[in-house]
C-alpha cells in the first residue's frame, strides 16, 4: 500500500463528508471553489492547495460538471508515479453519493493487476513478484494445477490469477479470443511443430536404418 496515497484518500473523505470539527463540502462550496458560474458552464476544475496530508501525492483535483445530473463531481488523485485515481459523486441535495455503476470508495483499492510477460509465457492478475515465482515454478515443471489459457493459434500460454475472469481474456500475442482452458500438469512445454516434425523424421530414419541392417544381415552383402 502507498501510505501517501492512503493519506490523500483519507483527507478527501474528510473534506467531502466532514468530521467532528467541520461539515463536509457542499455543492455550493464546490461551485465557489471552481468559480461557477463566473468561469463558464464547465466542466471546471480546482486543485486543492498542498498541505501535509497531501504531501504523498502529486495533486488532488476536483472536477465539477454543472450540467450533468448524474455526475457532478469527479475527484482525481494523482499519485507520485503519475497514476490517476478517479472517484465519482453526485449531490443528492444533502450529501455526496456515488452514481450507480461508478466508483466512489475513498480508499486505496488494489488496481487491476496487469499483464506481465516472463520468458515465453504471460501472467495475468498477479503482483509482479508472484508472477516471477510462478514463472520459475512453471519453468521447473513444478507449478502443478496452475490454471492457464492456451492459444491454439500461436501457442502462447496465459497463466491467470483466481481474480481474473478467463472467459474475457484474449491472446496477448495474436489477439485470438478463443483460448483453451488448461491446467498445468508438469513438464508439458509446448513443442515447436518444426521440432516435433524433425524428431519424427529422425525416429523414422532410425527405424529404416535398423531395417536395412537387418535385411543386410539376413540377405548377406
Ligand atoms: Zn495467440
What do you see in this structure?
The chain is rod-shaped and about 110 Å long. With 221 residues, the protein is α+β, with helices and mostly antiparallel strands. The protein has a 5-stranded antiparallel beta sheet, covered by helices on one side. The chain has helices at residues 3-17, 27-34, 128-139, 193-219, and strands at residues 44-47, 57-64, 73-79, 84-91, 96-97, 115-118, 121-124, 147-150, 157-160, 180-183. It contains 4 helices and 10 strands. The protein folds into 3 domains: 3-97, no CATH class; 115-183, no CATH class; 196-221. The structure holds zinc ion. Residues 151, 153-154, 156, 171, 173-174, 176 line the site of zinc ion (ZN).
Amino acid at each position: 500500500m502507498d501510505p501517501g496515497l492512503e493519506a490523500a484518500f483519507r483527507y478527501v473523505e474528510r473534506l467531502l463528508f466532514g468530521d467532528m470539527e467541520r461539515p463536509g463540502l457542499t455543492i455550493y462550496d464546490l461551485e465557489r471553489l471552481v468559480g461557477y458560474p463566473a468561469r463558464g458552464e464547465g466542466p471546471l476544475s480546482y486543485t486543492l492547495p498542498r498541505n501535509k496530508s497531501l504531501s504523498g501525492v502529486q495533486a488532488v483535483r476536483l472536477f465539477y460538471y454543472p450540467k450533468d445530473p448524474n455526475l457532478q463531481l469527479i475527484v482525481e488523485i494523482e499519485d507520485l508515479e503519475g497514476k490517476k485515481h478517479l472517484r465519482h459523486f453526485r449531490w443528492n441535495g444533502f450529501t455526496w453519493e456515488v452514481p450507480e455503476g461508478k466508483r466512489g470508495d475513498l480508499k486505496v483499492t488494489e488496481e487491476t493487476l496487469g499483464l506481465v510477460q516472463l520468458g515465453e509465457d504471460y501472467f495475468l492478475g498477479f503482483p509482479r513478484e508472484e508472477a516471477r515465482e510462478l514463472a520459475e515454478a512453471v519453468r521447473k515443471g513444478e507449478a502443478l494445477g496452475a490454471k492457464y489459457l492456451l492459444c491454439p493459434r500461436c501457442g502462447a500460454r496465459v497463466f491467470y490469477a483466481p481474480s481474473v475472469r478467463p472467459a474475457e481474456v484474449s491472446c496477448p500475442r495474436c489477439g485470438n479470443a478463443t483460448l483453451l482452458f488448461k491446467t498445468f500438469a508438469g513438464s508439458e512445454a509446448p513443442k515447436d511443430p518444426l521440432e516435433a516434425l524433425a524428431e519424427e523424421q529422425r525416429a523414422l530414419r532410425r527405424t529404416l536404418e535398423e531395417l536395412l541392417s537387418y535385411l543386410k544381415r539376413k540377405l548377406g552383402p
